[in-house]
Amino acid sequence: MLIGELSKKTGLSKDTIRFYEKIGLITACDRRAGTRLYAEYSLETVERLLMIAQGKGLGFRLSEIKQLLDEWEGGALSQQNQIEIIDRKLEEIAEKTQQLNAIKTYLIAKRHKLNEEILAESRS
User: CA nearest 88: which of 99, 98, 80?
Assistant: First the structure.
């Protein structure tokens, strides 16, 4: 499939797809049509891009995603190593969750204080 169709299937922009190809996260085959050369992507690329998007959503950096995909697909990581990587990422997520909860608590308190000030002003 061409990049436009891949973009529609994954929800990623063409620029993002090209960037991922440039840094080696995905690959394409060249397809000639007349004098033009087009990048053609396999159905597996759709699945790989969706996995990349999920990894990013979970807080993985692109370099981590590339390493994990390459090693997992190549069978280089034992199941124990995979579990250790996942556990480290879960710890990072727990830390980020604590930070977000602290920010949320602060914002709720700030909103409450502002509402009280508005109410006090309207009474005077």
Answer: 80
